[in-house]
Design brief:
With 418 residues, this protein is an all-alpha fold. Helix 2 packs across helix 11, helix 5 packs antiparallel against helix 7 and helix 15 packs antiparallel against helix 16.
Length: 418
């Protein structure tokens, strides 16, 4: 049921007000804010205090989760450094494609065997949690002194596999709702979603960049900071809507548009870009508050209780079986890079679940996909457990594996059109 006109403002006030406090507490404790945001949603939601009435199945809730996914994928695209990517693209491509498929398959089998859910639900659960989270990984690596190529590998992977994970989820959903879970049709659907989405993304990203680059060769029609920011928001919406209308992946289109938007050179002195980037960074915090708050408020607490240790066991399989398998089966195929065993072990441990999986879970709830409540519960557990367990231990694990860089490690350059 949609939130009423009276409950909508109150719900937003509670989420944003409590979110500000949670963000401050997270900084004080040195924890990722995502965990506190999702727990905040649970506490404020119908299952406890009943102060937030923005279910993911409602119109406003759907707008928040889809808009959040679109925003974070666009920002993930702008964070991709193509100069770095050219050196390690085979490894990134392997992790973001075959690695996502391996992760999804292992989690699907675990969900089927441990929770006893139908294969259709198990496949959706695997697809949704297969992506990692640049929103958590980027600030984490900004504080660590880890080898440059490891930083670049994991950050680039986290950006790309959110897009491929989203496309994979939509492919599985199409197969299920169409009554056909066959390798051939699924592969065709996946290829169509990716290719059409990428083409639309290139066109939209190039068009917007032509308007704001500030160089007459590219156009430079929009120069004020308000115009540039509005153009980026328009690019996100336009890429998503057009790609979906043409039968492609709106998520892939938004991600590619972000890559194009962030990589075409901006002339020196284009001050509007700095203001634009600062605004999107601040907006990202609000997006995380709302998306994770809505997810937390939409989680079925009784279902999580009914899962018991089973749900935790499936997330344990994700951490200790699926991710290591994905890494050790894919990265050695990139022989030119000669990834060491220590580097493989480090990469296998870094895979926090975050914004895009949460938004995808909300999307499935909104369209009432089969077993969407089970998928949302698993995503909730994955977000809390992966961020609470992995993020605080990454620095110690890097030190133990001796993958630190004494010269300071690789910086995390988000680029952002500079």
């Amino acid at each position: 049921m949609n939130a009423s006109p009276l409950t909508l403002p109150a719900s937003l006030v509670w989420l944003l007000g409590a979110g500000l406090l949670a963000a401050r507490v997270a900084r004080w404790l040195g924890l990722p804010d995502l965990v506190l945001f999702v727990l905040l949603g649970v506490v404020l939601g119908p299952g406890m205090l009943d102060r937030v009435n923005l279910p993911a199945t409602g119109g406003v809730g759907q707008l928040i989760v889809i808009g959040g996914a679109v925003f974070m994928l666009y920002e993930g695209g702008r964070a991709v450094d193509l100069a770095v990517l050219r050196r390690i693209w085979p490894a990134v491509a392997l992790l973001a494609s075959l690695g996502v498929a391996v992760t999804a398959a292992v989690v699907a089998v675990a969900s089927r065997l441990v929770l006893g859910v139908p294969w259709t639900v198990a496949l959706l659960a695997g697809a949704v949690v297969a992506g990692t989270d640049p929103a958590t990984i980027v600030p984490l690596f900004a504080r660590l002194r880890v080898r440059s190529r490891l930083v670049q590998l994991v950050v680039a992977e986290s950006a790309f596999n959110d897009a491929t994970g989203a496309v994979f989820t939509m492919t599985v959903l199409l197969a299920i709702t169409g009554g056909r879970v066959l390798a051939g049709p699924v592969a065709v659907d996946f290829a169509r979603l990716v290719v059409l989405g990428a083409v639309v993304g290139v066109m939209v990203g190039s068009g917007v960049q032509a308007l704001v680059a500030g160089d007459r060769r590219w156009g430079g029609f929009l120069t004020e900071r308000e115009e540039v920011t509005t153009a980026s928001l328009l690019a996100m919406a336009l890429a998503y809507v057009v790609a979906n209308a043409l039968g492609g992946s709106g998520f892939m289109a938004v991600f590619v548009a972000g890559i194009v938007r962030g990589r075409i050179p901006v002339p020196p002195g284009a001050q509007h870009e700095a203001a634009h980037n600062e605004f999107l960074t601040l907006l990202g915090t609000v997006v995380r508050m709302l998306v994770f708050g809505v997810l937390g408020a939409s989680v079925n607490l009784r279902l999580i209780g009914a899962m018991g240790p089973g749900g935790v066991a499936v997330v344990g399989v994700l951490l200790f079986v699926a991710r290591p398998l994905a890494v050790f089966l894919t990265l050695p195929l990139h022989r030119a890079a000669r990834w060491s065993g220590r580097e493989l072990l480090f990469t296998a441990w870094v895979r926090e679940t975050g914004v895009v999986p949460a938004a995808l879970a909300g999307l499935l709830l909104g369209v009432r996909a089969p077993g969407a409540d089970v998928v949302a519960a698993l995503v909730f557990l994955a977000v809390v457990l992966t961020i609470a367990v992995q993020a605080p231990t990454t620095a110690a694990w890097a030190h133990r594996l001796a993958v630190s860089d004494p010269d300071g490690g690789g910086s995390v350059d988000r680029g952002r059109g500079q």
